[in-house]
Amino acid sequence: MKIILVGFGAIGKGVAKVLHEKRDYLKKNYGDFKVVAITDSSGSAIDENGLDLIKAIEVKETTGSIKNYPEKGSKMKSIDVIREVKADVVVEITPSNLETGEPAKTHILESFRNKKHVVTANKGPLALCYKELVEEAKKHGVMFRHEASVGGAMPIINLAKETLAGNEILSIRGILNGTTNYILTKMEKEGLDFETALKEAKELGIAETDPTQDIEGLDTAAKIVILANSIMGLEKTIKDVKVKGITKITPEALFLANKRGYTIKLIGQIKENHLIVEPMLVPIDSPLNVKGTLNVAMFETDLAREVVVVGRGAGPIETASAILSDLIHIYTTINTKQKIK
Amino acid sequence: MKIILVGFGAIGKGVAKVLHEKRDYLKKNYGDFKVVAITDSSGSAIDENGLDLIKAIEVKETTGSIKNYPEKGSKMKSIDVIREVKADVVVEITPSNLETGEPAKTHILESFRNKKHVVTANKGPLALCYKELVEEAKKHGVMFRHEASVGGAMPIINLAKETLAGNEILSIRGILNGTTNYILTKMEKEGLDFETALKEAKELGIAETDPTQDIEGLDTAAKIVILANSIMGLEKTIKDVKVKGITKITPEALFLANKRGYTIKLIGQIKENHLIVEPMLVPIDSPLNVKGTLNVAMFETDLAREVVVVGRGAGPIETASAILSDLIHIYTTINTKQKIK
For the whole model, what pTM was predicted? Predict the structure, then answer.
């Protein structure tokens, strides 16, 4: 299976690393997963026989641009690579933009038009125009998968749609942002105030330099929009979410909650067509009370009743794990079809 | 898709109920799921146009035997129904026998030989001769799925093999028996001794009249054998498991564990090729510390790191949920193939 990686930041490099390390395992259990092109905002590297992924990571880390890949590097843009390079799947992993969804939206639509399946971790286009993307994919007869867009390595979208197939998902509640969970856990355990806990999270690289989207709840809001649309068949955008962040939470509030058998978590919730993100009281012995940077989601379903899943919501290798599972699904589906031809 | 239900006890009736209630939903989203035969130890009912599932449940509940189904009922045996009735899938849900695996083993093998896919919840044959079953299925080109055999509605086997595809599963630890978890939770919360908690569990129908397999850890042992073989590719049987039950646990032991920040759970564990079932100390804030009849499993993986899943381990509708997801997977796979033909 031939793959194009569009975007070569931390996650792109994580995917390259995993595909390199798992090459023999994949060959033995599935087939050959070959990266025939990698692009970033500066240009690209293309080799239809498969790029050397370790060399690609090295070039990116030492020169800052994949276009410097020896002999096979060029200034060719992502969109042209998507159009012109022969491949089965495009992995779209440029940075998420929650206002415009670009450049990911254009990349994804262009991939569909060129009969390429798409795997993405990109929240932007999914939170802004999910329906349009799904319809375009259908129109062109290609697959569109995005397990990595919510909860990183924590199984959630494919879990609900495939492992729990046949169940109606009645509600979803969860902690979908590791940064805010880390901050609240620190405040609770050490009595720190919000600013101090945030500062520490920044120093550890858990919070970004500009943590607004996380602490104001926008990141969680984008994620529950994706879950509402992809799992529950709703047609929501980020504007439909009532959002409140964690900046007003005090260590005193956490202390008082604890005294009554509760903790406070930033919960994203989809229930009866309403999407809410806000700090909520959670019983201390609830499975939703997970600590540190962990993510958690609780599904309420008609047959299986409550199902809870806990996992790592971020990190390049963890995100690559979800992308890899989507790539394997696409490979297996294509292969099931080809066996019959 | 034509289905034969072999076994019509609580789980069989649960499957029939779910297939009846979900009929329109399945038709709309997938296709027609028709039960063309139901068998129990007394006989069978056969209708190639699809049985009336509500009538089948009523007949079974009022007369005790499916052979009394009006006009379509007969003394025809399960094995002959498997051989002679035209169908795509056999759902094997006779009672589990952990010593011989029968009659499920014979039913499953005969289904394979007759080119019928199999979905089962039956632990017996899986814990005793997994490899033989998988090889027979492969030989005859049919699918063999058994999500319901471990953890009821809790996603576990398909989660590890499909949702986490590409990950190496390094270890599995979990609470895979709801009865023992209920007893230990009661003892911990109310200071009851083992016998009193067991008595209460029996009165509530949570423990069986003969609870030996649960409280001695054999049920958990069978389940970790299934997980070791199906998820981790090992070749274990129930004889390879070091097993210790919960009958010696006292409320004092739980009290002391609590005082030090721990609880005691009956844990099934697969790690470095060793299978163990025994009461273990679990930190109070560990995701493994789930209460009541809940089941939980923690996977340690190479890419996604730790993933935890919590769900309902038993109950006819919950088990039917897992069976339904397997049926949908088979339907989708057959259908992907047929689209190309």
Answer: 0.93
Region A165-172: mean pLDDT is: 96
Range A80-109 average pLDDT: 97
Of residues B162, B311, B329, nearest to A304 (C-beta): B311
Which of B209, B212, B213, B180 shows the shortest CA–CA distance to B197? B180
A306 and A321 belong to one structural domain:
no
Size of interface A-B (CB pairs under 8 A): 154
Confidence grade of residue B339 (pLDDT, cut at 50, 70, 90): low
Both A81 and A108 in one domain: the answer is yes
Q: Which of A129, A8, A127 is nearest to A59 (CA)?
A: A8
State whether B118 and B237 are in the same domain.
Answer: no
Q: Are residues A133 and A182 in the same domain?
A: no
- Give the sheet arrangement for strand A262-271, strand by strand: A241-243, A274-283, A262-271, A169-175, A294-301, A306-312, B306-312, B294-301, B169-175, B262-271, B274-283, B241-243
**Is A60 a known active-site residue?**
no
**What's the CATH number where B335 sits?**
3.40.50.720
Confidence of residue B337 (pLDDT cuts 50, 70, 90): low
Is the pLDDT reported for residue A266 higher than 70?
yes
Q: Beta strands A2-6 and A89-92: pairing type?
A: parallel
> Which of A119, A303, A325, A332 would you mutate first to test chain B, the one with the most B CBs within 10 A?
A303
Structure confidence by residue, pLDDT tens digits, A21-56: 999 999 999 999 999 999 999 999 999 999 999 999
B232 and B202 housed in the same domain = yes
**Count of CB atoms situated within 10 Å of the CB of B240:** 15
Q: Which residue of B has its CA nearest to A325?
A: B165
| Chain A nearest C-alpha distance from B309 (Å) | 4
Q: Which domain holds residue A258?
A: 161-313
Structural domains counted in chain B: 2
Same domain, A222 and A243: yes
Q: Which of A26, A168, A320 sits opposite B303 (nearest CB)?
A: A320
**Whole-number average pLDDT of chain A:** 95
Shared domain check, B105 and B173: no
